[in-house]
Amino acid sequence: MVADGRPSFRRSVVALLAARGFEVVGEAEDGPGAIALVSEVDPQVVLLDARLPDLDGFEVASQLLARHADLVVVLVSGHDRSSQVRPALADGVNAAAGFVNANESALATVQQVEARNRALLGAIPDTILRYGRDGTYLDARPDAYSAQLFPPEQFIGRNVREVLPDELARTIIAGIERALESGSMQVLEYEVVVRGEAHWREARI
Hints:
It is built from 8 helices and 8 strands, in the order E-H-E-H-E-H-E-H-H-E-E-H-H-H-E-E. The chain is an alpha/beta fold. Helix 2 runs parallel beside helix 3 and helix 3 packs across helix 4 (87-96). It is elongated, with a radius of gyration of 20 Å. The two termini are 23 Å apart. The relative contact order is 0.08.
């Protein structure tokens, strides 16, 4: 996600990220908009202008990190003096997310985060599914067996209500809602019939 008060700069950053294979899930032009949009689109990384027009970028970063512990915030600025704004707050943000003073450095940081996340996911043998808040399949990394039975291209972009039996779809949606409300992992056990045989599965959301 990109948050910057300069439309032309946002367009350039979004184009650059897209060209390098990143998905930009949203754009914000001010601090309150950035805070609201993060809650809505749940990004992994936020590129945040240190000098937003209405609310100091450090303050926005501080609020975001307080509400979203796993979020990575990359502060971007073309002004060296921005690093002098609110030193105590800057130190806190630096410790949590890292301060980046140049756009290319910011992009490199995003790439490092992406590489780290992919390495972590690659070490997990189980199927990993990414859902939207409404139950839409956003991404999938299936194990070899699941990939043969349910190729991701058959369900990515569709809602669980379109793909799964009604009862299982309701269970998944309820699990997503509980996870978002509580902020804690939800463990679901369910039965699925594959080629006429019943299998019990466990899912963690």
